[in-house]
Amino acid sequence: MHEIRLAQKSDRAALIQFIDQHWKKNHIFVTSDEIFDWQHFDRISGKYNFIIGVERATQAIHGVLGFIPLAHFDSEIPFERLCWMAIWMTQDAARGHKLGRRLLSYLEESVKPDVISTVGASEMTLAMYQARGYQTGRLSQYYILNSEQSNFSLIAVKDTKRIPDKAGTSDANKRLQPAFENDIIADTENCFRAQIDFPPKSPRYLINRYLRHPVYHYQIYLIRDRSETTGIVVTRICSHAGAKAIRIVDFIGPSDALSGLCDEWNYLLKSTNAEYIDFYNQGIDDNHLRASGFVRREMGDAIIVPNYFEPFFKANVEIDYCISLPPGQAYRIVKGDSDQDRPAQNATSMF
Ligand SMILES: CC(C)(COP(=O)(O)OP(=O)(O)OC[C@H]1O[C@@H](n2cnc3c(N)ncnc32)[C@H](O)[C@@H]1OP(=O)(O)O)[C@@H](O)C(=O)NCCC(=O)NCCS
Questions:
Q1: Is residue 205 part of a domain?
Q2: Per-residue pLDDT at 82 exceeds 90
Q3: DSSP state letters, 170-221
Q4: Among 79, 99, 135, 226, who pairs with 71 as Cys (CB 3.0-4.6 Å)?
Q5: 39 and 107 co-located in one domain
Q6: pTM
């Protein structure tokens, strides 16, 4: 009944219309060609990284599965190394007839990534991933509050006595140094070489994914330990009604590079006048995050550390993921992976 294939340039209008009608009205892909192409157009193949299910009789799109290869931001990374799945949707009338699973099978069998992952999986799909043998889990959200502020407008603290104390340390030899494209190319080789956890990222990946983002402004910091660069932190400031939050969206390097950075985070919070720093991740050592001054938000904690800013939504948000790696292989997931840190509203520049 359905032909399953990659979307061609000529499918673009129908694909966007499907997203508008079935996924979300006025989605950013509907209102911004720039963001859609930036995330899904493969300039090398001239196709979209979107698998579509087209009804043979009518040629109408009935289902879509978008994906983002790690190689999308660095063509020297093999295309097959990792693909993150993004929008996965079949229209109501087609549901439950295996079209969704056929789209996913096409990704597995025709695109053939070594590893497939989703960040931000909906509850109903977790069982479908588990049935395919994928691992599923939930990102942890870590945060540091600005200790110089007592009245928060983004964060909600219901009971200060029930907020765990942070227990980080400060190493006078460690600094966070703002970094630009040249610094990433020239001064970070050992951080990338030391990557053990999957997926291995590259300097070009960080530059294209973050520093050359068409809309968002990301700030990258090198973790300097005396004269050595031991880690790379990618951040973005989110704001609402004049209040700011610093979001850590990526991190490269061994997790112990984060230990002892308490004073540096506090300085960053003070100098940007932000309410908090947060860091959603999976696979970064909890002891090193705590030694950096981070506190992990737990389910019953009396605090809200918002995730959504476009529009702002004062609520804790749990982010579930799946990954097709075999158990036992270490991996990292951060908020900058997949489409989690993507503009949700149309704007030419968002700082
Ligand atoms: C997820 C989705 C793409 C799957 O597409 P699909 O064409 O229904 O998929 P399949 O027919 O291959 O499998 C459906 C399975 O989902 C389950 N399911 C849950 N709710 C369902 C529903 N309302 N209708 C049909 N199946 C449903 C069934 O267990 C079914 O498995 P089964 O055939 O073994 O019983 C589709 O359900 C959808 O568009 N959901 C809403 C959007 C969404 O949550 N996307 C994922 C974002 S991470």
A1: yes
A2: yes
A3: B-TTEEEEEE-HHHHHHH-HHHHHT--SBSP--HHHHIIIIIT-SSB-EEEE
A4: 79
A5: yes
A6: 0.95
